[in-house]
Amino acid sequence: MLFNKPWGVLSQFTDSDGHPGLAHYLSLPGFRVAGRLDRDSEGLLILTDDGALQQRIANPRHTRWKTYLVQVEGAPEAGALCRLRDGITLKDGPTRPCRVKPIEEPDWLWPRDPPVRFRKSVPTSWIQMDLSEGRNRQVRRMTAAVGLPTLRLVRTHVGEWSLAGLAPGEHRAINRAR
To answer: What distances in angstroms separate CA 149 from CA 35, 73, 134, 145, 146, one per listed residue?
Structure first.
């Protein structure tokens, strides 16, 4: 099942600390999340009742690229983008190289509720990042390490699966053969 996780929703079926879980949107007994998103991130989640498929999606040894649209504070310079592409050394070790490029704000992207904070004196920019691993808060930690704090993070693809056509809170079935 593909699900467009709204901002503020947990990547688990139960609520916690006043934050809603997936059960507010889906009733899928026996399904598990394959590759989580933190509460502050939005976008594509894959849920499955197939343990082998979950492993192929979530386990880093099965290199499956994930695409993120990232609104950052500041304007990305070539040096910062190069450092991201080459991989960043975080507290839990070096990241794999990734693909990154500056982009315009997507015109199809829904407004976030609540909106991202606005500061007149600090510009924001958008980048697209493609990662082949998925550590805890990895995109946020990588962008912060190069001086570009993440303001908004939307996952649009996991391997061949796409968020296209799903509004926040919507879901659709997937082909298990992938």
So the answer is: 22, 5, 18, 8, 8
The pTM assigned to this predicted structure is 0.92
pLDDT in tens, 72-82: 999 999 999 99
Using CA atoms in the order 166, 170, 172, 178, what is the torsion angle rounded to 10 degrees? 60
d(CA 148, CA 77): 10
The residues spanned by each domain of the chain are: 2-172
pLDDT tens digit sequence for 85-131: 999 999 999 999 999 999 999 999 999 988 888 777 788 999 999 99
Q: Which of 38, 40, 49, 92 is catalytic?
A: 38
Is 38 a catalytic site residue? Answer: yes
**CATH (residue range 2-172):** 3.30.70.1560
Q: Are 33 and 5 in contact (CB under 8 A)?
A: no
